[in-house]
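Section 5.1 Outputs to date
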Amino acid sequence: MKRRSQSILAWGAIVAASLSSCVLVDPPPTLPAVPELPPIVQSSNPPGPVLTTWPTEGFAITVYVSDDTAPIYTVAFEDYSDAKGVNEILPRGSAVEWPAPPGNTSETRTIVIRDLSPPMGPGCHTLEIILANSFSGAQPNPPGGTVLSWLYVGSGSPLDCMSNYDAGAAADGAFPPADAGPSDGSRG
């Protein structure tokens, strides 16, 4: 019996000590802020990259956004070229705002761009749509933007796009170009 009472006293002391002990816990470290992301394209219709007919129903683009309440902005270019200096932003000359739908709680959103007209003139044309959180003129502000690009072939045949391309120095369409040197491997 003496042994049993000693055992009970020992357990009692252990329980009392554990109840009176203090556990110090540091607060969790401050977590880094989640970086803002540009809109990330999940799908587009038409799926591209070559359009042989103009999509009369518009360009439907499904994107993931890091802030489900923020608007998405788009700009569109036809035949963009750094060499031109000035490139016209379609269709209105500036970025288009696509506000978040009221009560939106989804980070995935679909926008449909319906007011783009088919490119005028013969040949092939490149249509680019840039999506971003905001723009300064035609340039996406940080964290950048996402570019969708389609090749529009009004004639219906992508081969028509290559008829004006010649990478040879003489621009005579010869393969290999006459200025390529001997084709037998000699260094003549």
